[in-house]
Every structure is written in C-alpha cells, then in structure tokens.
Design brief:
Bound molecules: iron/sulfur cluster
Shape: globular
CATH architecture of the largest domain: Alpha-Beta Barrel
Number of strands: 17
Number of helices: 16
Structural class: alpha/beta
Helix content: 25-40%
Radius of gyration: 22 Å
Strand order of the largest sheet: 1-2-3-4-5-6-7-8
CATH superfamily of the largest domain: Metal-dependent hydrolases
CATH class of the largest domain: Alpha Beta
Number of domains: 2
Amino acid sequence: MFTDSHAHLDDSQYNGDRDEVIKRAAAAGVEYIVNAGSNPKDNALVAEISGRYPGVYAAVGIHPHHAAEATEADFVELRKLASLEKVTAIGETGLDYFRNLAPEGDQKRSFKRCLGLAKELALPIILHSRDAEADSIEILRSENAQECGGVLHCFNGSLKMRDEALRLGFYIAVGGAVTFPKADALREAVKGIPLSRLLLETDCPYLAPKSVRGKRNEPANIIEIAQKVSELLGRPLSEIEAASTSNAGYLFGVGIRTQGKIVYEIRDQLYLNITNRCSNHCAFCIRNGTDFVKRHNLRLKKEPTPAEVITAIGDPKRYREVVFCGYGEPLIRLSAVKEIGSWVKKHGGKIRIDTNGQANLLHRRKVAAELAESVDAVSVSLNAQDSACYDKMCCSQYGEGAYEGLKEFVLDAKNHIKDVTVTFVTVPGVDVERCKEIADKELGVKYRVREYGKVG
Ligand code: SF4
C-alpha cells in the first residue's frame, strides 16, 4: 500500500468527482493520503474531508503565498484545527521567493509562527521552500525545527536543501517532477535520499507525472513516481512502497489506529515514550519487527506534549527511576525532555535518559550542560567498536560522523551528569571486548552489555 504524503483534494477541481478520485487511488493501492491546507478556508475544508474518508488525513497551515493575509483570528483557528484527531501536521508553511505573493517579512513571521505551533503541539511541519533556500535553512536552524521534525515537500533537487533537511532529521518527499525528461539533476539528487527518509507525493492537482503531464493530477499517479524512484535507487518497487508508507507512519501517524502508550511500567521503573522519530535506523532495532515492548504498544499516532506526559506520569516518587526511552530518540525533543525532566526532579523522582548519543549533532551544540538540572543519569548506546561498524549497524543520518559525535557527547556528559553509562548489544559484528576497552580507557565511563533481542 502506498501513501500520497501531499495532496490538495480540497481543490475545486475535484468538486465533481472527489469520491471517484479517492476510489481510484484505493484501487491503485494508495491507502493513505495527506491533504495539505494553505489558508484558513482550505484548512477547514481539508479537516472536514479527512473526517469523511478513513484513509485521508489533513495538515493545516499558512502557505507563504497567504502569509500577508493571515490574521490573529486565523492563527487561533489554526490551533483549534490542529488539535483534531486526523490533523497530522502543520503545513504547508515556509518561504516562497519565486512568486513572492507576500512580502518576505510576512512570510518569515508566518513560517516562524507555524513552527512555534508545531513544536508546542508536537506535530511535524510540511515545509514549502522555493527560491528561498538560505532563509529557510536559517529559520529551520534558529527555530530548532528538529524538535518537531517534518518533511521537505516537493523536493526540487537542491543538494544543499536535501542535506540540511536530512541533518535536521526531516523526511524528503519526491513528486512527479522526478519523471520529467529534463529533470536529470533532480534524479541524481534523489539517489542520495536514504530509504529511511523517503516519502512520495503527488502534490495533486499539480505536477502530474510524465505519462499524464498537463492533465489534472491525482493520488493514483503516485505509482508512476514510485516506479521512477525504484529505478533510481535500484530497489524493488515493493521496498519503496513499504519504506515510504512506514516513514509516513512515523512522521504523520498515518495508518496507526490506536495511540501507543506514552508511559509504561516495567518492574519498578516508568518509561516515557515521547517520540517514534530517530536519527538512526539500526539493523537490530526492535521497531523493525514489532510495535510492542513487553506487551505495551509503543507506536505513536501523535507525539505527546510535555503536559500530557506529566499528567500520565502521576507521582514520580512511586518509581525507582523514570526513563526516557520508547520507540525513538528522546533527545530529538530536547526542550520536552528538559521540561518533563525538571518536573520529575522537582517532584522527587529520578530521571534517566536512554539515548543514541547524537544530541550534539542534532542540535549543533553541546547539550549535556543544559541537561544537568533535569537529568540524573544517561545511558548511551555505543553499539560499535568503530565508525565503520557503527555506520553499518545503525545507519545514522549523520553517516560516518555519527560515531565520533556520540563519543564526544559521552565525554561532555561526564562533566555535567553524575551517572553516565555506555551500552552495546551483542549483535554479530560487534567486538564486545573492544567496546569494553573503549568505555574503560577512552571514555572513562561504566558499560553494560545488552543481550540482542532482550528489552527492559
Ligand atoms: S537508536 Fe534506538 S530507537 Fe533509534 S533506530 Fe536505533 S535502536 Fe531504534
């Protein structure tokens, strides 16, 4: 089953046959569609349409073209709509200096405001960036967009934008332009998108792929786009289909019927599950095979806000330890970790973070000092004896720099957090004895060997 991660089925071009278009998509194998709004009127409509069709979801936002018209009341309404169950993202939002239909200052303000809302409501963003690369990157960085995550919609082939999006842990959506005869540069750039970060989109009614170019586009045409991507990446179509739909599940929660647990107990510890996003794609990750840990469903439909997590914790003193863990990398949401951790400590609990150690890379600064007040212990998955082994095992979005980055995080964490441990899993290919030596001699921290396949 395919997912069209970006469509505009609210467009009036579908008023006569929306049902048929959605039926044709289902017949072609497109089970999920994310409809993106662009302005207050569209937002209300995409939200309403998502209520009518089980596989259709909505995103609500202010497109840069509409940035100048958006009023205070529109942003209030946007927040209301964003809280609806089938609204999965804030978007479209971003900058468009190609058509420049709104002054740049208004576009920037609206983009920042949408990003702020996304972070507050723990929703990803759908980023529209056209001829505005430098400013888009500057805002994504300064507003810590990695904390909410998102997708670079309508990827145009810019290597700079692709690499920046990947660095921030964003997904990249490939659309019909990849099939156009003159799009060689785009096709080359698509080859550099890891499967774990790929989404497909039609952007219908626009950008119909080659075989129907010039006609009204529709979600069923995603298959032609997927076939081209399959050819470019040299992977079977079924793999592109599975990966892009699974990625849409991680990012938007599409296809996930029930919200996984945001807190769960194992013995005398309470685990917190605040995100399913991760900067790694480890070969041994339990998520590859199941949504469950010790019978707790951890697949999130939506990431919880700090307030929701705090309510779910209750009295932290009831537990020996409260642990950020779950089905993703908690330090992607650094601000949420700090807020929740501080609250737990203030109320007499003890906090540990289980992390892949890539927080410095994610946030482009050393973060351990910021965690000192809200964390008692940190456990970092070292997982490998060298960078090549780590890269093979963990497929980090930071490539070969990931291993050195995590070691730097451990060394810095020792200066600010009293209890620092590294762990390694007994997976074939990992030299456990060498890992022990690295923990002892190079990093000067405790270690714990974890048995492959055993959790909790
Ligand atoms: S770092 Fe952890 S959550 Fe992320 S992919 Fe690896 S095992 Fe899974």
